[in-house]
Amino acid sequence: MKGLCRCVLAVVLGISVGIAEENRPPPPDVDLPFPVGERLTYTIYWGWIAVGESVASTDWVWEEGEWKLRIRFRTRSNSILSSLYPVDDTITTLLNGNTLKPEQFIVDINEGKTERNELTVFDWDAGKAFWTKFHDDKEDEKESIDLAEDTRDLVSFMYFMRRTPFDPGNTYSFEVLTDAKIYKLLVNANALEEIKLDRYGKVKSRRLDPQAKFQGIFVRKGSMRVWVSEDERRIMTKMFIDTPFANVRVLLKSVDGPGEDFWVEKKD
Fold it and tell me: What pLDDT does residue 15 have?
């Protein structure tokens, strides 16, 4: 258990373990639908009030003698919301650097008085994922989940669906693992719409309507609509979530990192 905790801590905090940096081989040259080092910043609105930000980032980390691709969402409330309901959530997935299959999915939720810490370990040889929910005051909860060849955790799914050219009028089926369950996620592709962003102007984006309900990145429950830019990057430009309490909008604020395209040039 100590070794596992050390591994998870290294991933979450970004601490690389193993041989000296100068002796490591270069990261793998793999085909990705996004540039490693990309940093997407989103503003979260409840109604018309901005209540926080979420940052999605990718980077290579050296862990247990291998390169891993780390994808992380960090969501924090601003001063307006923090006085009533502070939020500081980090959700991380760690992928094998060569196969790009998920190896670990780490959930660290801190919302008000609620804390949730979970770890899912993917064992592809056994065809199973092993989920643990950690508790301080009682025995940890554990589950095992059968994996299909194309099963992904929620975070890596959101990134790898960016290689899907969604055609209007079609419905796409995916398998997503989250909350210790496999969900069949259907995505309906609709027409292009223009999403107005402060930094980038009007961006043509494909509207996607996912048909599934599970605890997500930005809120716990609610039906949603997602808009994805109609360019090679296919960046999520907007998300609209209808919850029992309020409408939540998530709007793209900025794109940072490598690239010589519209997103980087427009920002500069």
Answer: 47
Region of 233 please: left (phi>0), alpha (psi -120 to 50) or beta.
Answer: alpha
Residue range 2-19+31-267 forms a domain whose CATH class is: mainly beta
Report in angstroms the alpha-carbon separations of 256 from 38, 43, 138, 243, 267: 6, 15, 42, 30, 8
pLDDT per position as a tens digit, 145-159 = 999 888 999 999 999
- Lowest average pLDDT, out of 18-22, 109-113, 158-162, 251-255, goes to 18-22
So what's the pLDDT on residue 245? Answer: 72
Are 183 and 214 in contact by the 8 Å Cβ rule? The answer is yes
Q: Which two tokens stand for residue 258?
A: 């490598």
Cα separation of 17 and 34, whole Å? 26
- The CA distance from 225 to 196, in Å, is 16
Domain boundaries of the chain, sorted by first residue? 2-19+31-267
